[in-house]
Amino acid sequence: MKTIFFDLDDTLYFRCDAFFQAFEEFFHKTEFPSDEYISIQKKANDRCRIRGDEVFYQSQRGGITMDQMYVYRFQNGFADCNIQITEQQALDFHSIYKQKLYSLKLNDDIVKMLDYSKRHFDRIGIITNGPGTHQRNKIKNLGLEKWLDPDLIIVSGEHKVDKPDLEIFKIAQKLSGKNPEELVFVGDNFNNDIIPAKKLGWHTVWIDLYNENFPDAEYRVENVSQIINAFNHFI
User: Fold this and answer.
1) Please, is 205 exposed, middle or buried when counting C-beta atoms within 10 Å of its C-beta (0-12, 13-18, 19+)?
2) Torsion-angle region of residue 193: left (phi > 0), alpha (psi -120 to 50) or beta?
3) How far apart are CA 12 and CA 124, in angstroms?
4) What strand order describes the sheet that includes 183-187?
């Protein structure tokens, strides 16, 4: 049987759910035109995600503090949507967002996929970028330990190497004790998740959340509910 690894963020849960909840708590709906509220909310989520990606590696390598990363992410992300907030407000928003992240629960499609994986793969792991404590708190609060093999939880901050560096995938492969063709990786970020896993000869399933539709994906799905059908190619 094969071993399967998952990305965490936007693969086993979706950060936009926490962002939308934080947005609704932090801002008043009356601040925005009622017919534009949802589109503004979605655009703000996208822009804050992109702005966070711009400085993520810098924060992980000590170039800036985590608070500086949060300020950059939210202050600039909201500014891209013509919403002006102060540095302190950016930190306040992050605090609410973090609370919402830790209170999220797995949706039914994720639970179904994980149950299926438990039956059809011999071991299940995670490879995720981020600080060790932060990512492990998410794993614990989501209840993912029910399905995961503890020694296969690979957090970049604990190994001082981030995806898409091949080294973090090599660490996972060594811990799994498997050959490349016996490994499967599922993730949402084509550059960080899919390309490095493919380079090492792993099977891959790409969750194309933003309809990027790169042509060289081995198996591409548009949402989590389609993943089990992709798994049938591996088991």
Assistant:
1) buried
2) alpha
3) 13
4) 153-155, 123-128, 3-6, 183-187, 203-207, 219-221
Position 216 pLDDT exceeds 90: no
Res 35: pLDDT: 87
Question: What is the dihedral sign for C-alpha 109, 110, 115, 121?
Answer: positive
Find out whether 11 and 191 touch, Cβ atoms under 8 Å. no
Q: Are 215 and 235 a contacting pair, CB within 8 Å?
A: no
Query: Domain 3-13+106-231 falls in which CATH fold?
Result: Rossmann fold (3.40.50)
Rounded to whole angstroms, the Cα distance separating 146 from 66 reads 30
Q: What is the 3-state secondary structure (H, E, C) of the chain?
A: CCEEEECCECCCECHHHHHHHHHHHHCCHHHCCCCCHHHHHHHHHHHHHHHHHHHHHHHHCCCCCHHHHHHHHHHHHHHCCCCCCCHHHHHHHHHHHHHHHHHCCCCHHHHHHHHHHHHHCCEEEEEECCCHHHHHHHHHHHCHHHCCCHHHEEEHHHHCCCCCCHHHHHHHHHHHCCCHHHEEEEECCHHHHHHHHHHCCCEEEEECCCCCCCCCCCEEECCHHHHHHHHCCCC
In the numeric block, which tokens belong to residue 227?
């993943």
> Alpha-carbon distance 200 to 143, whole Å?
30
Reported as a single tens digit per residue, the pLDDT across 112-136 is: 999 999 999 999 999 999 999 999 9
Tell me if 208 sits within 8 A of 217, measured CB to CB: yes
Domain ranges of the chain: 3-13+106-231, 15-103
